[in-house]
């Protein structure tokens, strides 16, 4: 894993400009010499429209230092489920009698699978693109994004409980195995090992999310009431995961908006303003010319 790669996440209400702001940031920072991968995590996949290029899972180079890829959520859901399937089959071979395949067809549509699939995609991307300085994630709508960011903490709560339970079972079994042959012992350890492995895995992700050198959370909002209140909700929820906003981005800014309203209501490290554009922000060259009109660019 590349220790220097930094992940920038763009979050916010639908339509505030997450995709546009993450595209602008990708272009600006790749022009500044950083090797950037822009990843579209939102199944709506607006980056293809913004750049007017049909992106896929395989990154496409759009200019020097900048490549863009999409995350195909259905592919990652299938991958997540087949990983789980494989592990269950290996650890609990007796369960095959229940014909697990039938259950997995239904589980695919169950709530909660998407965030596991996104987290799996995220981990693979981090592992794979170690040559990048920055990986910029254009995130899905708020509810899914918050589940994704909270998943390591939540999973750790569960796994630690399971670990306690497993240890209790082992304690009880020890008395039995004294008189029994040790064949069961291998299975018992396998499960505890698996739990410990998963705990370590989630701890690593949690540590990356909490490390300001490795993760930057960018909240995009518009100067209007609805996006204000959703942004506050985001900030509160992030706080409950022990995370905080790094950059606050006021997009579609217009004269007459009082920035001190933001200062009163939010805590953040840095404020970036993207004014409302008169021309559509579509296509690489219009994004580049928009960037040239900005007074300052402070996201890094
Ligand atoms: N600064 C801006 N000025 C003008 N139009 C913008 C600006 N930012 C975004 N838009 C437009 O607003 C719409 C929503 O932006 P988008 O980036 O797709 O939002 P999100 O990804 O948050 O849903 C798009 O039509 C986009 O072109
Ligand atoms: Mg979008």
What this model shows, in words?
With 300 residues, the protein is α/β, with parallel strands linked by helices. The protein has a domain at 6-76 and 110-146 and 214-292: Rossmann fold, CATH 3.40.50. The protein is built from 10 helices and 8 strands. Strands 3-4-2-5-1-6-7-8 form an 8-stranded mixed beta sheet, sandwiched between helices. The two termini are 21 Å apart. The mean pLDDT is 89. Adenosine-5'-diphosphate binds next to helix 1 and strand 7.
Element layout with pairings:
Elements: E1 6-11, H1 18-31, E2 36-40, H2 47-51, E3 60-63, E4 66-70, H3 73-91, H4 100-107, H5 113-128, E5 134-138, H6 142-177, H7 183-210, E6 215-221, H8 225-240, E7 247-253, H9 260-265, E8 270-275, H10 284-292
Parallel strand pairs: 1-5, 1-6, 2-4, 2-5, 6-7, 7-8
Antiparallel strand pairs: 3-4
Helix pairs in contact: 1-10, 3-5, 5-6, 6-7, 6-8
Radius of gyration: 22 Å
Quaternary form: single chain
Mean pLDDT equals 89
Poorly predicted regions = none
- Main sheet strand line-up: 3-4-2-5-1-6-7-8
Looking at CATH, which topology of the domain at 6-76 and 110-146 and 214-292 would you report?
Rossmann fold
Run of helices and strands? EHEHEEHHHEHHEHEHEH
Kindly, what is the distance between the CA atoms of the first and last residues, rounded to a whole number of angstroms? 21 Å
State the helical fraction: 40-55%
Shape: globular
What is the CATH class of the domain at 6-76 and 110-146 and 214-292?
Alpha Beta
Count all strands and give the number.
Answer: 8
Number of helices: 10
Strand-residue proportion: 15-25%
Derived structural class: alpha/beta
Task: Just name the CATH architecture of the domain at 6-76 and 110-146 and 214-292.
Answer: 3-Layer(aba) Sandwich
Q: What about the largest sheet?
A: 8 strands, mixed
Ligands, ions, cofactors: adenosine-5'-diphosphate, magnesium ion
